[in-house]
Amino acid sequence: MKLRFLTYNVHKCIGGLDRRYDPERVRETIAHYDPDIVLLQEVDHAARRSNGHRQVDLLGEMLDLRHRTWFPNVRVRGGGEYGNAILSRFPLTHTRNIDLTIGWKKKRSVLHARYRVRLLGKRGGPKTRTVHVFNMHLGLSGPERKMQLRKFLQTEPFCRLDHRTPVLVAGDFNDVWGTLGKKLLEPAGFRGFATPPRTFPAYAPVRSLDSVYVRGDFEITKLMRSRLAVAKSASDHLPLIADVEVY
């Protein structure tokens, strides 16, 4: 059975070029790919620059994805805050935010969500699996990112999950040199694409800052970046879309 995931740094729904606040552009970009689970970074709440919107609910309602979780990381000058969010077609059974902040650095975290996903079994009957999704936004320096990933790998609930449990880790890794997966995630049993699609900056991408990795009874069958014209102006990142087989 296939699931479609989409990970997207929405930049508070502010365009990377025109600096215009326009949630509709983000909605149009996401809706085009009809994902089952959406992982978003830089999602505003009560900030003046985004009209005071609670964007996790605004986008969830616009996309008709009613199962949502959000956690703030950074306070915004003048009021409000932003953080990571996950939107889903499937009921949420558990959620937790895991702090990955290193010392005095900017606050960072990974947002965990657990779902019971009803699938179609090989013989045509229904099958239910527990799926763990981790949405992360890592720091801007190389040593910081490595420390954050090591911290994640040693933190519950991930460190106690069975090696066959379907786990997806995705988000804005800020992985400028494309080495985090090979150095840290692959030794922990994760699989991804050796060269993820370039996603930054959105209007002319040259860096693969965003990534998707799976572990357990999961397999990525397709990974692509958005090539929609609207996506080039909706944010400063392009979204990644991953088709994943659950078995």
Question: Any overview of this molecule?
Answer:
This protein is α+β, with helices and mostly antiparallel strands. It has helices spanning 23-33, 55-63, 142-153, 180-185, 231-234; strands spanning 2-9, 37-45, 67-75, 81-88, 92-99, 109-120, 126-137, 167-172, 210-215, 218-225, 240-246. The strands form 2 sheets. It has a 6-stranded mixed sheet with strand order 3-4-2-1-11-10, with helices on one face. The termini are close together.
Describe the structure in brief.
The protein has helices at about 25-35, 55-65, 140-155, 180-185, 230-235, and strands at about 1-10, 35-45, 65-75, 80-90, 90-100, 110-120, 125-135, 165-170, 210-215, 220-225, 240-245. The protein has about 250 residues and is of the alpha+beta class.
Annotation keywords:
5-stranded mixed beta sheet, alpha+beta, 247 residues, 5 helices, globular, single chain, 6-stranded mixed beta sheet
Fold blueprint:
Layout: E1 2-9, H1 23-33, E2 37-45, H2 55-63, E3 67-75, E4 81-88, E5 92-99, E6 109-120, E7 126-137, H3 142-153, E8 167-172, H4 180-185, E9 210-215, E10 218-225, H5 231-234, E11 240-246
Parallel strand pairs: 1-2, 7-8
Antiparallel strand pairs: 1-11, 2-4, 3-4, 5-6, 6-7, 8-9, 10-11
Helix pairs in contact: 1-2
